[in-house]
Request: fold
Amino acid sequence: MNPTDTSKEYGEYVKKKAPNSPILKDCFNAFWVGGLICSIGQLIFFYCKFKGLDQTASSTVVSICLILISVILTSLNIFNRIGKFAGAGSLIPITGFANSIVSPSIEYKSEGYVMGVGAKMFTVAGPVLVYGISASVIIGIIACLFI
Amino acid sequence: MLNCFIVGGVLCVIGQILIDKTKLTPARILVLYVTVGTILGGIGIYQKLIDFAGCGATVPLTGFGANLAKGALEAVKEQGLLGAFIGGVKASAGGIAAAVFFGYLASLIAKPKIKKQ
Reply:
């Protein structure tokens, strides 16, 4: 049998067998859950402003509050249910970032507190920080050179 | 408030389409979002979105990236080249520290769930 044929056949086989994810429904769920999370953030933001914090401090408070909520929901095993339902709706907001830190840190507890919790915590968050921080340093250097 | 809801929702829908239509893993999508956010923040486009949508733009991970870029740019103005290394992390330190600390705390308290089939 020709190997390219088999891989092509296999691809078609996988396509047939893989569950047809209803993209419209997924997108709708992602839309309203994502929008809702951002709106909760906006409410916290208004409250901070009302309390007299400035723009930057308010944004930080919003991030910390949403992270805390996400951590609690992850610990109670509720967040992964929301995640299954909403997909990117809970992944893209900062809640997803927090979840990606907490979830493995709880999961790998049995491997010890240093190499289990301490190291596995950053399996997803690590790359995010690496690329985010590197990009920001590059932008800073460019700004320094040209502006 | 409505702007916030719509922009936040649309950013999530873009992520959902990437999940469904490409074979990108969630980790790669998060990395993509942060990098794009940092670049857009560096150019100054993202700030316009923040002015328009508030938390609808800052809460998604692109906002985290834009915040990194904003911090770096502001620090460069004050401290020059040193600012490029200090500013980004400084601006988003609150979120990073909170996530790490609460994450560690949760691992002390919560029990790992038993994987069901």
